[in-house]
Amino acid sequence: MRRIVAVVARLSRPASRVAWLRREDRDAAVDAAFALIPDAWPCRLASIDVTPGQAKPSLDETHVAGLRLASGIAVLVVAVCALLVAGPAPGIVVGILLPLGLVLPDAVMARRVRAARRRLTVSLPDALDLIAAALRAGHDLDGAIALASTHSAPPLGRLLTDVSARVAIGQSIVAALQEVAGRTGEPTIASVAALIARHRALGIPVAPSLNTVADEARSRAHIAIAERAARAGPLAAILTAGVIAPACVVFLVVVVLGGLTERGAILGL
């Protein structure tokens, strides 16, 4: 792993000079990936400082550019090997896939981030209810968030742990939550930060409002799940009609023609 990281680091400087590899406008997407999925291989290879459980590893966009270049070079090497060993046809096919190698890290990060955001959306309401219950039981807000971090699945548990760590070194809870919301793009966390700031300014209990936010977030999560399920039905029908059914028809035709050929029933054989 460290050798691969060293190669990526060496490629980072030349890659950072190429605009379409650096992609500075994609910083938000890369930052979200480093916040939500630090254990994914693109994040681990793009930064040697990434460790499991660390909510915000050191983010260096030049390393991400180096990873894109390394991925493209890897596909190119495979293409050359296929050309030398298996002939021109496989080599040409793999060579055509070279652009896919350049975007492979981004594609993997985007897919993993979407899955992490879905898990975050599902687990947030229960975490907010737990924080509200802890506040009613006498915990302060810092302790309630720390308690929720130990009972929440990744990526939320990791993010709440990061919030507790920042509070422990002197940062306010509101500022820590706002930073997490900015990195992850999760609006519910931003709403919670604004809610805590408003209630502290007014001196009113936070727990009842946290339950309200949790109920609203749970409703949005259920709606999102229903929408994904509704989209999955037509896609399954298209897959069946466009791929599975024709494949079955071709298989049956091949079997029938094979049987007729063996019996000499085709073309008078």
Name its key features.
269 residues; mainly alpha; flat
Structural notes for this entry:
- By secondary structure, the protein is mainly alpha-helical.
- The chain is 81% helix and 0% strand.
- The chain has 12 helices and no strands.
- It has helices at residues 2-16, 19-22, 27-36, 41-46, 61-86, 88-96, 98-136, 141-150, 156-168, 173-184, 187-202, 207-263.
- It is flat.
- 28% of the residues are buried.
- Residues 50-58 have low confidence and may be disordered.
Secondary-structure map:
Elements: H1 2-16, H2 19-22, H3 27-36, H4 41-46, H5 61-86, H6 88-96, H7 98-136, H8 141-150, H9 156-168, H10 173-184, H11 187-202, H12 207-263
Helix pairs in contact: 1-5, 3-7, 5-6, 5-7, 7-8, 7-12, 8-9, 9-10, 10-11, 11-12
Brief rundown of the structure:
The chain is built from twelve helices and no strands. The longest helix has 57 residues.
